[in-house]
Amino acid sequence: MLDIQRIINSFPPSIKAKLRPFYFKKGEIIIRKGDNVDFGYFVIDGTFDTIEDSIDGKKFLIAKDQSEFICMMDIFSENNVQCATIIARTDCVGYKLSKKACMDLLDSPCLFQPSLIRAWARKFYETTTTIYRYPIYRTKTKLITNVLHNGVDNNNGTTTLSIPRDRLADTIGCSRRTLFRVLQSLKEDGLITTAGSKITVDKEKALQFITKADMDD
Predict the structure, then answer these.
(1) Which member of 7, 50, 97, 107 lies 3.0 to 4.6 Å from 63 by CB, making a disulfide possible if both were Cys?
(2) Distance CA 129, CA 198 (A)
């Protein structure tokens, strides 16, 4: 884990003066998906979860027990809105810094830039190795999530997405051969049905599957 206080202490005085303290209680929402991203957060103590939007009142984890930085990916990818909801897993204490000041840190001679690279590289490595170990399982999760996010809700507790198989394979990052194996497996598990280019997901079963995937991590 990075020493966030040490990183902050290395900031130029002009940027350090712009820091504002924050405190979030366990379970409190730090920022919601779709909110304007006005600040980057430096977590000195505590951990947080990245949560996907509620589907029929239910939520599922994208990443859990994270620490260190919040909203930096959104700031440096030059997006104006938050891509997912961040919730305090424990009490979180630290400092927030305006988006502009965070951008200024990229050109400042301090520990921020190399520390951010290390944090992102570690997370990318962890994600990649997990996908390598469980490729089919992860592809199933990505396929289901894609349908839930982009499909149309039906009145019977299902969601349907119409998408060509080639485009779906590209979207979730697998070959057509793997895609057909995954579709067949999900049909056998009773999570989906297919008809032409349409894929229909049972939302209750899908959310149970995604929750189990998070617990297995």
Answers:
(1) 50
(2) 31
Per residue in 22-73, pLDDT (tens digit) is 999 999 999 998 899 999 999 999 999 888 754 445 566 667 778 899 999 8
pLDDT in tens, 88-143: 999 999 999 999 999 999 889 999 999 999 988 887 777 666 555 555 677 888 89
Alpha-carbon distance 144 to 75, whole Å? 28
How many Cβ atoms sit within 10 Å of the Cβ of residue 88?
A: 21
DSSP label at residue 158: E
4-130 architecture in CATH?
Sandwich (2.60)
Q: What is the C-alpha to C-alpha distance for residues 38 and 26, in angstroms, rounded to an integer?
A: 22
Which part of the chain has CATH 2.60.120.10?
4-130
Pick from 117-126, 178-187, 203-212: least confident: 203-212
| Cα–Cα distance, 148 to 208 (Å, whole number) | 13
Residues of the chain with CATH 1.10.10.10: 134-216
Strand pairing class (29-31; 152-153): unpaired
At 175, give phi and psi (nearest 5°): -80, 165
